[in-house]
Design a protein that fits this description.
The structure is a single chain. It contains 11 helices and 12 strands. Helix 7 runs antiparallel to helix 8 and helix 9 runs parallel beside helix 10. Helices cover 29% and strands 12% of the residues. The chain has one domain: Alkaline Phosphatase, subunit A, CATH 3.40.720. By secondary structure, the chain is of the alpha/beta class.
Length: 408
Protein backbone atom coordinates (compact mmCIF):
# COMPACT_ATOMS: atom_id res chain seq x y z
CA UNK A 1 0.00 0.00 0.00
CA UNK A 2 1.29 3.44 -0.86
CA UNK A 3 2.12 6.05 1.70
CA UNK A 4 -0.73 8.49 2.38
CA UNK A 5 1.74 11.36 2.48
CA UNK A 6 3.23 12.63 -0.75
CA UNK A 7 5.34 15.75 -0.63
CA UNK A 8 5.79 18.75 -2.82
CA UNK A 9 8.95 19.49 -4.70
CA UNK A 10 11.60 21.54 -2.87
CA UNK A 11 10.64 20.25 0.55
CA UNK A 12 7.25 21.89 1.01
CA UNK A 13 4.97 19.56 2.93
CA UNK A 14 1.48 20.69 2.11
CA UNK A 15 0.34 17.82 -0.11
CA UNK A 16 -1.41 15.24 2.05
CA UNK A 17 -4.15 12.64 2.06
CA UNK A 18 -4.02 11.47 -1.53
CA UNK A 19 -5.36 8.18 -0.29
CA UNK A 20 -4.24 5.94 -3.15
CA UNK A 21 -5.36 2.84 -1.26
CA UNK A 22 -7.28 -0.08 -2.78
CA UNK A 23 -10.60 1.52 -1.82
CA UNK A 24 -9.64 4.64 -3.79
CA UNK A 25 -8.72 2.52 -6.80
CA UNK A 26 -12.00 0.64 -6.55
CA UNK A 27 -13.95 3.89 -6.55
CA UNK A 28 -11.86 5.17 -9.45
CA UNK A 29 -12.69 2.06 -11.48
CA UNK A 30 -16.35 2.35 -10.56
CA UNK A 31 -16.37 5.95 -11.73
CA UNK A 32 -14.38 5.32 -14.90
CA UNK A 33 -16.37 5.95 -18.02
CA UNK A 34 -18.79 8.29 -16.30
CA UNK A 35 -19.49 11.18 -18.60
CA UNK A 36 -21.75 13.32 -16.45
CA UNK A 37 -20.86 16.99 -16.54
CA UNK A 38 -19.45 17.66 -13.11
CA UNK A 39 -20.51 20.59 -10.99
CA UNK A 40 -17.78 22.51 -9.16
CA UNK A 41 -17.62 24.34 -5.87
CA UNK A 42 -14.95 26.94 -5.05
CA UNK A 43 -14.93 27.62 -1.30
CA UNK A 44 -13.20 30.75 -0.01
CA UNK A 45 -12.53 31.39 3.68
CA UNK A 46 -11.99 34.95 4.95
CA UNK A 47 -9.95 34.09 8.05
CA UNK A 48 -10.00 36.53 10.93
CA UNK A 49 -13.72 37.46 10.92
CA UNK A 50 -14.56 40.05 8.30
CA UNK A 51 -16.79 42.92 9.37
CA UNK A 52 -19.98 41.92 7.58
CA UNK A 53 -21.64 45.24 8.38
CA UNK A 54 -19.11 47.17 6.31
CA UNK A 55 -18.73 44.30 3.82
CA UNK A 56 -22.44 44.31 2.93
CA UNK A 57 -23.70 47.58 4.41
CA UNK A 58 -27.21 47.83 5.94
CA UNK A 59 -27.40 51.55 5.19
CA UNK A 60 -31.19 51.38 5.50
CA UNK A 61 -30.98 50.51 9.22
CA UNK A 62 -30.72 53.80 11.17
CA UNK A 63 -28.99 52.09 14.10
CA UNK A 64 -26.03 51.35 11.84
CA UNK A 65 -24.89 54.96 11.70
CA UNK A 66 -25.48 55.60 15.40
CA UNK A 67 -23.25 52.67 16.31
CA UNK A 68 -20.35 53.63 14.04
CA UNK A 69 -19.61 57.34 14.16
CA UNK A 70 -16.17 57.11 12.49
CA UNK A 71 -16.17 53.86 10.48
CA UNK A 72 -19.67 53.69 8.95
CA UNK A 73 -19.85 53.57 5.16
CA UNK A 74 -21.74 56.63 3.88
CA UNK A 75 -25.12 56.42 2.19
CA UNK A 76 -25.15 55.61 -1.56
CA UNK A 77 -25.81 59.29 -2.27
CA UNK A 78 -22.09 59.83 -1.70
CA UNK A 79 -20.93 58.89 -5.20
CA UNK A 80 -17.29 58.41 -4.25
CA UNK A 81 -17.30 56.87 -0.77
CA UNK A 82 -20.88 55.67 -0.36
CA UNK A 83 -22.16 52.12 -0.35
CA UNK A 84 -22.95 50.70 -3.79
CA UNK A 85 -26.72 50.38 -3.57
CA UNK A 86 -28.09 46.87 -4.06
CA UNK A 87 -31.76 47.00 -3.14
CA UNK A 88 -32.46 50.26 -1.33
CA UNK A 89 -31.49 48.83 2.06
CA UNK A 90 -28.18 47.00 1.57
CA UNK A 91 -25.11 48.10 -0.35
CA UNK A 92 -21.65 46.81 -1.10
CA UNK A 93 -18.60 48.51 0.37
CA UNK A 94 -17.41 51.00 -2.27
CA UNK A 95 -14.16 49.09 -2.73
CA UNK A 96 -16.24 46.10 -3.83
CA UNK A 97 -17.54 47.96 -6.86
CA UNK A 98 -15.90 45.32 -9.06
CA UNK A 99 -18.64 42.92 -7.91
CA UNK A 100 -21.52 45.23 -8.85
CA UNK A 101 -21.78 43.82 -12.41
CA UNK A 102 -22.26 40.33 -10.96
CA UNK A 103 -25.16 41.63 -8.90
CA UNK A 104 -26.69 43.36 -11.91
CA UNK A 105 -26.39 40.21 -14.02
CA UNK A 106 -27.91 38.19 -11.15
CA UNK A 107 -24.88 35.96 -10.73
CA UNK A 108 -24.26 37.20 -7.17
CA UNK A 109 -26.47 36.45 -4.19
CA UNK A 110 -25.82 37.44 -0.57
CA UNK A 111 -26.90 35.78 2.66
CA UNK A 112 -26.79 38.25 5.55
CA UNK A 113 -27.21 37.72 9.29
CA UNK A 114 -25.75 34.26 8.67
CA UNK A 115 -23.44 32.21 10.87
CA UNK A 116 -23.01 29.64 13.59
CA UNK A 117 -25.48 29.00 16.41
CA UNK A 118 -22.46 28.57 18.68
CA UNK A 119 -21.59 31.90 20.29
CA UNK A 120 -17.84 31.41 20.65
CA UNK A 121 -15.66 34.41 19.85
CA UNK A 122 -12.54 32.28 19.51
CA UNK A 123 -11.15 32.41 15.96
CA UNK A 124 -9.73 28.88 16.26
CA UNK A 125 -12.93 27.28 17.56
CA UNK A 126 -15.26 29.17 15.23
CA UNK A 127 -13.20 28.31 12.15
CA UNK A 128 -13.10 24.68 13.23
CA UNK A 129 -16.86 24.59 13.74
CA UNK A 130 -17.51 26.13 10.33
CA UNK A 131 -15.07 23.84 8.53
CA UNK A 132 -16.45 20.69 10.15
CA UNK A 133 -20.04 22.00 10.05
CA UNK A 134 -20.56 20.77 13.60
CA UNK A 135 -20.91 23.91 15.74
CA UNK A 136 -19.98 23.42 19.38
CA UNK A 137 -18.39 20.00 18.77
CA UNK A 138 -14.59 19.91 18.82
CA UNK A 139 -14.19 16.16 18.34
CA UNK A 140 -15.35 15.95 14.70
CA UNK A 141 -12.64 14.22 12.71
CA UNK A 142 -13.34 15.34 9.17
CA UNK A 143 -14.43 18.44 7.28
CA UNK A 144 -17.80 18.88 5.62
CA UNK A 145 -16.32 19.12 2.12
CA UNK A 146 -14.42 15.90 2.70
CA UNK A 147 -17.64 14.22 3.78
CA UNK A 148 -19.18 15.44 0.53
CA UNK A 149 -16.32 13.82 -1.38
CA UNK A 150 -16.85 10.59 0.54
CA UNK A 151 -20.41 10.17 -0.70
CA UNK A 152 -19.41 10.59 -4.36
CA UNK A 153 -17.32 8.16 -6.42
CA UNK A 154 -13.75 9.38 -6.87
CA UNK A 155 -13.17 10.07 -10.55
CA UNK A 156 -9.85 11.92 -10.36
CA UNK A 157 -6.97 12.36 -7.92
CA UNK A 158 -7.35 16.08 -8.60
CA UNK A 159 -11.01 16.25 -7.62
CA UNK A 160 -10.31 18.36 -4.50
CA UNK A 161 -7.47 20.88 -4.41
CA UNK A 162 -6.63 23.64 -1.93
CA UNK A 163 -4.30 26.41 -3.07
CA UNK A 164 -2.83 26.63 0.42
CA UNK A 165 0.32 25.62 2.30
CA UNK A 166 -1.59 23.07 4.39
CA UNK A 167 -4.73 21.07 3.79
CA UNK A 168 -7.61 23.04 5.34
CA UNK A 169 -9.74 21.49 8.04
CA UNK A 170 -12.66 21.56 5.62
CA UNK A 171 -10.93 18.97 3.38
CA UNK A 172 -9.48 16.70 6.08
CA UNK A 173 -10.86 13.17 6.05
CA UNK A 174 -10.85 9.82 4.28
CA UNK A 175 -11.44 11.13 0.77
CA UNK A 176 -8.57 12.18 -1.49
CA UNK A 177 -7.62 15.85 -1.27
CA UNK A 178 -4.54 17.86 -2.21
CA UNK A 179 -2.99 21.08 -0.97
CA UNK A 180 -0.37 22.99 -2.91
CA UNK A 181 0.55 26.67 -2.70
CA UNK A 182 1.53 26.82 -6.38
CA UNK A 183 0.74 24.51 -9.27
CA UNK A 184 4.31 24.45 -10.57
CA UNK A 185 5.45 22.89 -7.27
CA UNK A 186 3.29 19.84 -7.73
CA UNK A 187 5.27 16.62 -7.99
CA UNK A 188 5.08 13.05 -6.79
CA UNK A 189 8.63 11.88 -6.16
CA UNK A 190 10.67 8.92 -5.08
CA UNK A 191 9.49 5.42 -4.10
CA UNK A 192 5.85 6.46 -3.64
CA UNK A 193 5.68 7.67 -7.23
CA UNK A 194 7.40 4.54 -8.54
CA UNK A 195 5.12 2.24 -6.54
CA UNK A 196 2.00 4.02 -7.68
CA UNK A 197 3.02 4.00 -11.34
CA UNK A 198 4.05 0.34 -11.16
CA UNK A 199 0.78 -0.65 -9.44
CA UNK A 200 -1.21 0.94 -12.22
CA UNK A 201 1.13 -0.20 -15.00
CA UNK A 202 0.93 -3.86 -13.96
CA UNK A 203 -2.83 -3.84 -13.56
CA UNK A 204 -4.51 -6.44 -15.74
CA UNK A 205 -7.67 -4.38 -15.86
CA UNK A 206 -7.34 -2.00 -18.79
CA UNK A 207 -9.66 0.50 -17.13
CA UNK A 208 -7.44 0.69 -14.05
CA UNK A 209 -4.31 0.94 -16.18
CA UNK A 210 -5.80 3.68 -18.33
CA UNK A 211 -7.00 5.65 -15.31
CA UNK A 212 -3.52 5.50 -13.78
CA UNK A 213 -1.87 6.66 -16.97
CA UNK A 214 -4.30 9.59 -17.19
CA UNK A 215 -3.48 10.49 -13.59
CA UNK A 216 0.23 10.56 -14.32
CA UNK A 217 -0.30 12.55 -17.49
CA UNK A 218 -2.21 15.07 -15.38
CA UNK A 219 0.57 15.14 -12.79
CA UNK A 220 3.13 15.79 -15.50
CA UNK A 221 1.02 18.59 -16.94
CA UNK A 222 0.59 20.26 -13.55
CA UNK A 223 4.26 19.88 -12.69
CA UNK A 224 5.24 21.60 -15.92
CA UNK A 225 2.57 24.26 -15.80
CA UNK A 226 3.95 27.75 -15.43
CA UNK A 227 1.40 30.18 -13.95
CA UNK A 228 3.55 33.05 -15.18
CA UNK A 229 2.74 31.95 -18.73
CA UNK A 230 -0.94 31.36 -18.07
CA UNK A 231 -3.13 33.73 -20.08
CA UNK A 232 -6.50 34.49 -18.44
CA UNK A 233 -9.46 34.68 -20.77
CA UNK A 234 -12.08 37.36 -21.42
CA UNK A 235 -9.82 40.19 -20.29
CA UNK A 236 -9.66 38.97 -16.68
CA UNK A 237 -7.11 40.93 -14.63
CA UNK A 238 -6.07 39.22 -11.40
CA UNK A 239 -4.41 41.23 -8.62
CA UNK A 240 -0.82 40.18 -8.02
CA UNK A 241 -1.61 39.47 -4.36
CA UNK A 242 -1.32 35.90 -2.98
CA UNK A 243 -5.12 35.64 -2.96
CA UNK A 244 -5.49 36.90 -6.51
CA UNK A 245 -2.84 34.48 -7.72
CA UNK A 246 -4.47 31.57 -5.86
CA UNK A 247 -7.76 32.22 -7.67
CA UNK A 248 -5.88 32.54 -10.95
CA UNK A 249 -4.44 29.06 -10.43
CA UNK A 250 -7.86 27.67 -9.54
CA UNK A 251 -9.04 28.93 -12.92
CA UNK A 252 -6.01 27.35 -14.57
CA UNK A 253 -6.69 24.05 -12.83
CA UNK A 254 -10.36 24.17 -13.81
CA UNK A 255 -9.45 24.62 -17.46
CA UNK A 256 -6.90 21.80 -17.32
CA UNK A 257 -9.79 19.28 -17.34
CA UNK A 258 -8.24 17.07 -14.66
CA UNK A 259 -11.54 16.39 -12.89
CA UNK A 260 -11.62 19.25 -10.39
CA UNK A 261 -14.80 19.20 -8.28
CA UNK A 262 -13.86 21.20 -5.20
CA UNK A 263 -11.32 24.01 -4.91
CA UNK A 264 -10.38 25.97 -1.81
CA UNK A 265 -8.54 29.21 -1.08
CA UNK A 266 -8.31 31.41 1.96
CA UNK A 267 -7.28 34.96 2.74
CA UNK A 268 -6.49 36.52 6.11
CA UNK A 269 -6.18 40.00 7.56
CA UNK A 270 -9.81 40.59 8.56
CA UNK A 271 -9.30 40.94 12.34
CA UNK A 272 -9.69 44.73 12.41
CA UNK A 273 -9.63 45.67 16.10
CA UNK A 274 -7.70 48.92 15.51
CA UNK A 275 -8.05 51.62 12.83
CA UNK A 276 -10.41 49.62 10.63
CA UNK A 277 -11.24 52.57 8.43
CA UNK A 278 -14.38 53.20 6.44
CA UNK A 279 -14.43 53.80 2.68
CA UNK A 280 -10.64 53.94 2.81
CA UNK A 281 -8.19 52.31 5.19
CA UNK A 282 -7.26 48.84 6.35
CA UNK A 283 -10.51 47.02 5.64
CA UNK A 284 -11.06 48.87 2.38
CA UNK A 285 -7.67 47.76 1.07
CA UNK A 286 -8.46 44.13 1.89
CA UNK A 287 -11.87 44.33 0.27
CA UNK A 288 -10.46 45.90 -2.89
CA UNK A 289 -8.14 42.91 -3.39
CA UNK A 290 -10.89 40.48 -2.43
CA UNK A 291 -13.46 41.92 -4.83
CA UNK A 292 -11.13 42.34 -7.78
CA UNK A 293 -9.82 38.78 -7.32
CA UNK A 294 -13.33 37.32 -7.30
CA UNK A 295 -14.39 39.39 -10.30
CA UNK A 296 -11.32 38.24 -12.23
CA UNK A 297 -12.04 34.58 -11.44
CA UNK A 298 -15.63 34.82 -12.65
CA UNK A 299 -14.58 36.71 -15.79
CA UNK A 300 -11.79 34.23 -16.53
CA UNK A 301 -14.00 31.15 -16.15
CA UNK A 302 -16.64 32.63 -18.44
CA UNK A 303 -19.12 29.96 -19.55
CA UNK A 304 -17.61 27.51 -17.07
CA UNK A 305 -19.37 29.46 -14.32
CA UNK A 306 -22.59 27.78 -15.43
CA UNK A 307 -21.34 24.66 -13.62
CA UNK A 308 -19.49 26.47 -10.83
CA UNK A 309 -20.50 28.04 -7.55
CA UNK A 310 -18.18 30.30 -5.57
CA UNK A 311 -18.98 30.46 -1.84
CA UNK A 312 -17.35 32.88 0.61
CA UNK A 313 -17.41 32.55 4.39
CA UNK A 314 -15.85 33.89 7.57
CA UNK A 315 -15.91 32.39 11.08
CA UNK A 316 -18.02 35.18 12.63
CA UNK A 317 -18.72 38.88 12.20
CA UNK A 318 -17.80 41.97 14.21
CA UNK A 319 -19.57 43.84 17.01
CA UNK A 320 -22.15 46.40 15.88
CA UNK A 321 -20.57 49.28 17.81
CA UNK A 322 -17.11 50.47 16.87
CA UNK A 323 -14.63 50.29 19.76
CA UNK A 324 -12.42 52.97 21.30
CA UNK A 325 -9.64 52.22 18.80
CA UNK A 326 -11.84 52.97 15.78
CA UNK A 327 -12.03 49.28 15.04
CA UNK A 328 -14.46 46.44 15.76
CA UNK A 329 -14.30 43.54 18.18
CA UNK A 330 -15.36 39.93 17.66
CA UNK A 331 -19.06 39.56 16.95
CA UNK A 332 -21.59 36.99 15.75
CA UNK A 333 -23.67 37.25 12.55
CA UNK A 334 -22.04 37.88 9.18
CA UNK A 335 -22.52 37.92 5.40
CA UNK A 336 -21.75 35.25 2.80
CA UNK A 337 -21.46 35.66 -0.97
CA UNK A 338 -22.73 32.98 -3.37
CA UNK A 339 -21.79 33.43 -7.02
CA UNK A 340 -22.33 31.36 -10.13
CA UNK A 341 -24.27 28.77 -12.01
CA UNK A 342 -27.92 28.40 -11.16
CA UNK A 343 -27.74 30.97 -8.35
CA UNK A 344 -30.79 33.21 -8.09
CA UNK A 345 -28.70 36.31 -7.73
CA UNK A 346 -29.54 39.96 -7.37
CA UNK A 347 -31.03 39.37 -3.92
CA UNK A 348 -29.98 39.54 -0.27
CA UNK A 349 -31.30 36.41 1.45
CA UNK A 350 -32.12 35.87 5.09
CA UNK A 351 -34.33 37.71 7.57
CA UNK A 352 -32.76 40.95 8.74
CA UNK A 353 -32.92 40.98 12.59
CA UNK A 354 -32.14 44.67 13.00
CA UNK A 355 -29.33 46.55 14.73
CA UNK A 356 -31.19 48.25 17.57
CA UNK A 357 -29.69 47.24 20.91
CA UNK A 358 -32.67 45.10 21.89
CA UNK A 359 -32.47 43.26 18.54
CA UNK A 360 -28.82 42.29 18.88
CA UNK A 361 -27.25 39.05 20.03
CA UNK A 362 -26.09 39.64 23.62
CA UNK A 363 -27.14 43.26 23.03
CA UNK A 364 -23.92 43.85 21.08
CA UNK A 365 -23.73 41.75 17.89
CA UNK A 366 -25.68 41.16 14.71
CA UNK A 367 -28.05 38.29 15.50
CA UNK A 368 -28.14 35.21 13.28
CA UNK A 369 -31.29 34.37 11.35
CA UNK A 370 -29.73 31.80 8.94
CA UNK A 371 -27.62 28.88 10.15
CA UNK A 372 -24.55 28.55 7.90
CA UNK A 373 -25.33 24.84 7.50
CA UNK A 374 -28.52 25.77 5.64
CA UNK A 375 -26.41 27.61 3.07
CA UNK A 376 -23.90 24.76 2.81
CA UNK A 377 -26.58 22.10 2.58
CA UNK A 378 -28.55 23.93 -0.11
CA UNK A 379 -25.41 24.10 -2.23
CA UNK A 380 -24.73 20.40 -1.65
CA UNK A 381 -28.29 19.36 -2.49
CA UNK A 382 -29.28 21.78 -5.24
CA UNK A 383 -25.97 22.53 -6.92
CA UNK A 384 -23.86 19.42 -6.26
CA UNK A 385 -26.96 17.18 -6.56
CA UNK A 386 -26.60 15.06 -3.42
CA UNK A 387 -30.10 13.78 -2.72
CA UNK A 388 -29.49 12.94 0.94
CA UNK A 389 -27.05 15.26 2.72
CA UNK A 390 -27.55 13.79 6.19
CA UNK A 391 -24.10 12.13 6.22
CA UNK A 392 -22.45 15.40 5.25
CA UNK A 393 -24.04 17.36 8.11
CA UNK A 394 -24.17 14.91 11.04
CA UNK A 395 -26.48 15.85 13.86
CA UNK A 396 -28.25 18.50 11.81
CA UNK A 397 -31.76 18.29 10.43
CA UNK A 398 -31.25 19.15 6.76
CA UNK A 399 -34.55 20.40 5.37
CA UNK A 400 -35.33 22.12 2.11
CA UNK A 401 -37.76 24.34 4.02
CA UNK A 402 -34.78 25.88 5.84
CA UNK A 403 -32.75 26.57 2.71
CA UNK A 404 -32.35 30.29 1.97
CA UNK A 405 -33.67 29.71 -1.57
CA UNK A 406 -30.46 30.42 -3.48
CA UNK A 407 -31.32 28.04 -6.32
CA UNK A 408 -34.49 27.79 -8.35
Amino acid sequence: MLSRRIFLKDGAFALVSLGFAPSFLARTIEAAGATLKAKRLIAIFQRGAVDGLNFVVPFGDPAYYGARPSIAIPQPTDAENGARDLDGFFGLHPRLASLSPLWTSRQLAIVHACGSPDSTRSHFDAQDFMETATPGIKSTGDGWLNRYLQVRAAASPFRAVALTQQLPRMLHGKAAALAMPRLEQFAVRGPASEQFERAYGEAKDTVMNGTGREAFDAMKMLREADPLRYAPENGADYPRSPFGQALKQIAQLTKANVGLEVAFADVGGWDTHVNQGAAVGQLATRLDDFGRSLAALVTDLGDRMADTVVLTMSEFGRAVNENGNRGTDHGHGNAMLVIGGGVRGGKVYGRWPGLAVEQRHDRRDLAISTDFRDVFSEIVVRHLAVADAAAIFPGYDVKASKFPGLFG
